[in-house]
Amino acid sequence: xxxxxxxxxxxxxxxxxxxxxxxxxxxxxxxxxxxxxxxxxxxxxxxxxxxxxxxxxxxxxxxxxxxxxxxxxxxxxxxxxxxxxxxxxxxxxxxxxxxxxxxxxxxxxxxxxxxxxxxxxxxxxxxxxxxxxxxxxxxxxxxxxxxxxxxxxxxxxxxxxxxxxxxxxxxxxxxxxxxxxxxxxxxxxxxxxxxxxxxxxxxxxxxxxxxxxxxxxxxxxxxxxxxxxxxxxxxxxxxxxxxxxxxxxxxxxxxxxxxxxxxxxxxxxxxxxxxxxxxxxxxxxxxxxxxxxxxxxxxxxxxxxxxxxxxxxxxxxxxxxxxxxxxxxxxxxxxxxxxxxxxxxxxxxxxxxxxxxxxxxxxxxxxx
Length: 368
Known about the structure:
single chain, alpha/beta, 6 strands
């Protein structure tokens, strides 16, 4: 990878990605590590989005319409300073797969270009789920394509909510996951484990990754090293297939409604009004699919690189920039693309003080 940001960051800061469907317990897992409610969910996200990073970077609002879904939570795991990235699930009812994939890709691209070590990925799954189907299957398919085969050795497949099932029932579902849905990944080095809902369990899980050498995910190689647009990556092309199918479906629905309208008499005003409403709904869905398709055509690596270079070139003209230690600089760069909950401020402050930065976290990011 040819990037001016690669190198020294590997020993200063590391990152772990936390993924899974909505409700799998991603935020709860991170909060268990922190022993407090740091990662925010649901309506609480509004306060996170106006925190240090997103309030100081207008371009982030342009990308996410003022809402940053991914959260970066700084935590100490042993002696390692680690950013845990809490990601939205691909089954999010308010956002499309294209939107979510783009956001995650930007964060991963910034981390890779900044030279921060990605220790691995924690993938959470509810053991309470009776069957592995629907959104879980889709999310897993996208997840595997994001990681790629070479990175699977740094993937932890974690089952959650064990307190809500009988041990025998849970063990039976665990066996099915091991022998069927997760067999491919386990056969290529992934590890399967249980999260029991407490700090000791969460720490034991996170420690497995912190001690590993850093990895590069398939989507990072494709976007940064090979210069592909998102749609040409393995994960992006998978999402594109769904968009193509949805577009065809919406267009067919609109054509069918047009044909039905032709058969109605002028007196069928109520039916005509209903058809008009249905047609407008399908048209809006088609417009969303077209926007998703356009989003996948973006050159993520180039736009992230340009944003980082613009920010660093602005700062390098100031003598103050030369005095900023490496750790705050790396956190600041990643913070351009992800939100950080205000509750993380105290730990970030201790990190920055250790590195020799005298100003407060709020002042730092207001000036970054």
